[in-house]
Amino acid sequence: MESEKNSTPVTLTQYIIRSQPPHSRGEFTLMMMAIQTAVKVIEKNIRRAGMLGMFGYLTNQSQNATGDSQAKLDVIANNAFKAYLMTSTCIAALGSEEEETLVIVDFDKQGDYLIFFDPLDGSSNIDANVSVGSIWGIWRVPKGKKFASIEDANQFIRTLKGNDIVSAGYAMYGSATNLVLTSGHGVDGFTLDPNIGEFLLTHPHICIPKKRRIFSVNEGNYNKWEAWYREYIEHVKKNKYTARYIGSMVGDVHRTLLYGGIFCYPRDAGKVEGKLRFLYEAAPMALIVEQAGGKALSGTGRILDQSIHRLHQRTPVYLGSRHEIDICMSFRDKHAKKQEGDKQGSKL
Ligand code: AHM
Ligand code: MG
User: Domain Fructose-1-6-bisphosphatase class 1 C-terminal, which positions (predicted)?
Assistant: First the structure.
């Protein structure tokens, strides 16, 4: 959706309403409004955090559901997402990085969507004023299906696949606040205009550049990586790639979408499933990257081909420009072939 003819930029609210199919009941619009409001609340809190003493971690050494220390802003961001979504009348349940279990809406107020979010990703960076973000992924609940209990909702999510995701997005709180969205028909980006408090369409039809020699990974984990991935990184270094790693997934993926290259969080000896969470980090970013023309793999296939087992499951992540992901995976394939050859040889 381009700007209006008189070049008045399209607002996010207009964009969401106009992208609804005719006769839709508007539940999706309401849910996106709730997300938009939560993002604005988080944005305001981040911008004022230094003045209000809101940087830092909770003093009671609190950890979230996946064992990470909770920053004060993690809690504020989680409360903002929860408050607006739970009263939006369009979700049946939500899952958050900051919540131990799924949270279900009162039985008679349940809507048709399930949403999973990381309210403040990369929060360990926040005191240093490095870009952080919120990430969300949205799945559908069949019409008439209601959850009587958390266990009921847990059972239902185990019937879903990554491919069932219907929409995903992220907000990045950086030098400007960006919001990037897909509902399976391409990717569009918005920037918050602080003067009017509206997100404006600034990056229509984002397409990831096909080739770019930029690699993004935490090299501190080098000694724990699998041999094939270490070889790929050696290849990258011999071929004059540029290294860029923020350590904030939203920032690293946003740059990869705009500039191209590869972003990885591989599995390693200490994190055999990888670090990033499937439902609210990897799957939403995978949908966005694929919709922008890139690839998003787990090392054994597409990220989105994975089944869902539990709320906080993790997955390795390799995403970015198609060409670069293919080069990366060629090292994995070469290694697998060699291992197979060695196995056959030892049987002789
Ligand atoms: P978080 O959800 O606890 O903030 O952790 C996720 C973050 C990602 O934003 C980032 O890609 C990754 O962790 C960085 O991890 P590391 O510090 O191990 O490089
Ligand atoms: Mg996170």
Answer: 208-330
Is 100 a catalytic site residue?
no
User: Which of the listed residues 118, 276, 280 should we mutate to test ligand 1's pocket, taking the one with most ligand atoms within 8 A of CB?
Assistant: 276
DSSP β-ladder status, 91-96 and 113-121? parallel
In this structure, which residues have their CB less than 5 angstroms from ion ligand 2?
118, 121
Please indicate, yes or no, whether the overall pTM of this predicted structure exceeds 0.90: yes
Tens of each residue's pLDDT in the chain, 348 residues: 544 555 789 999 999 998 876 667 789 999 999 999 999 999 999 998 777 766 565 555 566 666 666 678 899 999 999 999 999 999 999 999 999 999 999 999 999 999 999 999 998 888 888 999 999 999 999 988 999 999 999 999 999 999 999 999 999 999 999 999 999 999 999 999 999 999 999 999 999 998 789 999 999 999 999 999 999 999 999 999 999 999 999 999 999 999 999 999 999 999 999 999 999 999 999 999 999 999 999 999 999 999 999 999 999 999 999 999 999 999 999 998 888 888 777 776
Cβ(97) to ligand 1 under 6 A? yes
CA distance 254 to 322: 16
CA atoms within 13 A on the CB side of 303: 35
Number of H helices, E strands in the chain: 8, 13
Question: Looking up tokens 């990869």, which residue turns up?
Answer: 256
Beta bridge partners of 91: 113
Q: Which domains does the chain have, with CATH numbers?
A: 12-203 (3.30.540.10), 214-346 (3.40.190.80)
